[in-house]
Design goal:
Na+/H+ antiporter like fold, 430 residues, mainly alpha, globular, 17 helices
Length: 430
């Protein structure tokens, strides 16, 4: 990237954001995921750079990892700010947790077996590379499910968010316990890690919400995001599961009324927190949009489309996709989800998958074609697009009552009342 005029770089970066904005509009009108269009835009930029004699160096991959970390935090925070906790939603929360966990374990096990018998002889490495492919991408799901019914939309937001969290915990539990002496020691280490992280996350979430209402300066939201980035990175260095910190903070802020009960009411200013929640929601939404845009464009830039000519990678990718949708169908049925369709087709892979593959420790890395990732991401996005578009058509086919229908119903009701002598007498009150 040396030798590029800084003003041209600003223009190009701004153009990417403008194009991404129009991609979002197109996505809402057509059902084509904006993420898919961003990846294709990145692939186009890759070809232009090659044509101009500018090879893709390692700095692009470092940029991709940095954008992935920030994007992951913002996307989970954005999702948490959307979630409202109540007794009425207990069922959908438990349903989404069971579906996310069971889906992750079944899909990872099935894909690991496929990779072991086709590409990666070592079982441990096969499981390590299968785990990222078993994680559903909330970065793609959350912006795409706005057209679904309210119940399906909530379920998908919860499920994809928990899938991200469980996937990250599972992946780093595997890498962190590679030298463990027994399965029992792994279970104990993972349980201790999650338990410690959850306790720490709950405490930090309440403290951050309390401090946030005390800050009177106008510049405070990016200060908070910086603190969350520090906490997340510190948690990673301590081998914890810091995504829980982000999730619990977002839930605590979006459900601040649950904190302000009893004697604790004196500690929380509901009016101030309501204002902060609205501001936080806006800034998170806008920032996540920008970070997500550049992540998927850079992702497209780092892919060489010529690798798609690898037929073995194509066959393995199709096998992976078949296992993803087969295990998803089983998972939804076991979790007793009523709307199997189109939910069975909503299982895209994206940001988390790429992030985890990049995070495979050097000592466990093996030859794993990037084209498998590209095939799985692109095709799963296309399948999701088809599922969402078919769902939209189904909703459009539902008959609606017109004024003529209502008049007909009124006449039929009057006739029924007359036949049964149930008409009101003059002067009677309704």
């Amino acid at each position: 990237m040396e030798g590029i005029n800084v003003y041209l770089l600003v223009i190009y970066a701004s153009l990417v954001i403008v194009i991404s904005y129009f991609f979002n509009i197109i996505s809402k009108k057509t059902g084509v995921p904006s993420v898919l269009m961003l990846i294709l835009l990145g692939i186009g930029i890759h070809e232009i750079l090659i044509w101009k004699g500018m090879p893709i160096d390692k700095s692009w991959f470092s940029m991709l990892e940095l954008l992935g970390i920030v994007g992951l935090i913002l996307i989970v925070l954005e999702a948490a700010l959307e979630l409202k906790l109540s007794r009425e939603k207990k069922g959908v929360i438990l349903q989404s947790i069971s579906s996310a966990l069971l889906g992750l374990l079944l899909t990872t096990a099935a894909i690991a077996a496929l990779l072991h018998y086709t590409l990666i002889p070592d079982w441990f490495q096969a499981v390590l590379y299968a785990t990222p492919l078993g994680v559903m991408s909330s970065a793609i799901v959350i912006p795409s499910v706005g057209g679904l019914s309210k119940s399906n939309q909530e379920f998908m937001i919860y499920e994809s968010t928990f899938s991200d969290i469980f996937g990250i915990v599972l992946f780093f539990s595997i890498t962190g316990n590679a030298e463990a002496s027994s399965a029992w020691s792994i279970v104990k280490n993972v349980a201790a890690n999650i338990g410690l992280t959850v306790v720490l996350a709950v405490v930090l979430a309440v403290v951050l919400v309390w401090l946030l209402q005390k800050i009177t300066t106008k510049v405070k939201l990016f200060l908070l995001i910086a603190i969350l980035l520090i906490l997340y990175s510190a948690g990673k260095l301590m081998h914890l599961s810091p995504l829980f910190i982000i999730l619990f903070f977002g839930l605590a802020l979006s459900n601040y009324k649950l904190l302000a009960v009893g004697k604790a009411r004196k500690l929380f200013n509901e009016q101030a927190l309501h204002r902060v929640l609205e501001e936080m929601h806006t800034i998170t939404l806008e920032t996540a949009f920008v970070v997500r845009t550049f992540f998927f464009v850079v992702l497209g830039i780092t892919f060489d489309i010529r690798e798609l000519l690898d037929m073995q990678a194509l066959y393995i990718s199709l096998g992976v996709l078949a296992l993803i949708y087969l295990t998803r169908l089983v998972t939804l049925k076991v979790s007793m989800v009523k709307s199997l369709f189109p939910l069975v087709w909503l299982a895209p892979r994206g940001l988390i998958t790429i992030m985890l593959v990049i995070s495979v420790p050097a000592q466990y890395r093996t030859e794993f074609p990037d084209s498998i990732l590209l095939y799985v991401i692109l095709i799963s996005c296309l399948v999701m697009m088809g599922g969402l578009m078919s769902s939209k058509r189904d909703e459009e086919d539902v008959p609606t009552l017109t004024l003529k229908d209502i008049e007909t119903l009124d006449k039929e009701l009057e006739s029924f009342l007359a036949q049964h002598n149930c008409q009101e007498k003059p002067g009677n009150k309704a």
